Amino acid sequence: MYEYDIVQIDMNGWKGQPKLDHHQIVHAHAREGWRLVQLFSPPAAGFGSSTFMELYFEREIKA
What is the Cα–Cα distance from 22 to 25, expressed in whole angstroms? Predict the structure, then answer.
């Protein structure tokens, strides 16, 4: 069985960059046993870039 964690990161509308360091988030989750399985970014908003992205992590539940 697995558990999941979804982290939403808002994007800076002017720069088109994430407001948080997504690399740091991935490394921190990996240290805790999580595995990145998906990065989701919705279709572009009216001005040409996404407003957020989501990182999907999973890890096995140890019984």
Answer: 5
Q: Which of 3, 5, 12 is nearest to 56 (CA)?
A: 5
Name which of 8-12, 16-20, 26-30, 49-53 the model is least confident about: 16-20
Q: Report strand pairing: 52-60 vs 35-40.
A: antiparallel
**Contact assessment for residue 8 and residue 50, using Cβ atoms and an 8 Å cutoff:** no
Rg of the chain over Cα atoms, rounded to whole angstroms, equals: 14
For residue 8, the model assigns a pLDDT of 96
First to last CA, the chain: 9
The answer to whether residues 5 and 61 touch, using CB atoms and an 8 Å cutoff, is no
**Alpha helix stretches (DSSP H) within the chain:** 22-31
